[in-house]
Amino acid sequence: MQRLDKAGRLDFIDADDPGAACPVDRNLALARLHASENGRLLSGAAAFAAMWRVIPQLRWLGLAAQIPPVGWALEGFYRVFLVIRPAVQKLFKVLAR
C-alpha cells in the first residue's frame, strides 16, 4: 500500500514499535487494521477502503466498498483472513528462507 501512495497521503504507524504513538490500544491495533478518515476511526475492511479511496488506482474499489453489500462482503473476507493470517505468516517466513 505504501508503494502505491506516491503522493504520501497515508501516514503509517508501526503498532509493533513500542516508541510509536499509537492512537488505539496497541493490542487492538495489532489484531486489526485501523485507519482514521475525516476524524472517524475505522477498522477492518472499512480501514482498507478508506486507504484505497486516497490512492488513485484503487479509489474505485474504496468507493465501491461504501455500498453496504460490498462493504459487508469485504468485512466477511477480512474476518476470514484474520483467522488464517497466522498460518499465512508462517508460510511466508518459510518461503522467505
Percent in helix? 40-55%
How many domains? The number is 1
Based on CA atoms alone, the radius of gyration comes out at 14 Å
Which structural category do the helix and sheet elements fall into? mainly alpha
- Low-confidence blocks of residues: none
Strand content: 5-15%
Task: Give me the strand/helix succession.
Answer: HEEHHH
Strand order of the largest sheet: 1-2
Polypeptide structure, described:
With 97 residues, the chain is mostly helical. The chain has one domain. It is 53% helix and 8% strand. The protein has four helices and two strands; from the N terminus they run H-E-E-H-H-H. Strands 1-2 form a two-stranded antiparallel sheet. Strand 1 (34-37) and strand 2 (40-43) form a beta hairpin. The longest helix has 29 residues, at 68-96. It is globular and about 35 Å long. The two termini are 24 Å apart. The relative contact order is 0.11.
Question: Can you give keywords for this protein?
Answer:
single chain, 97 residues, mainly alpha, two-stranded antiparallel sheet
Please summarize what this structure is.
By secondary structure, the protein is mostly helical. The chain is built from 4 helices and 2 strands.
Structural topology:
Blueprint: H1 26-31, E1 34-37, E2 40-43, H2 45-54, H3 59-64, H4 68-96
Antiparallel strand pairs: 1-2
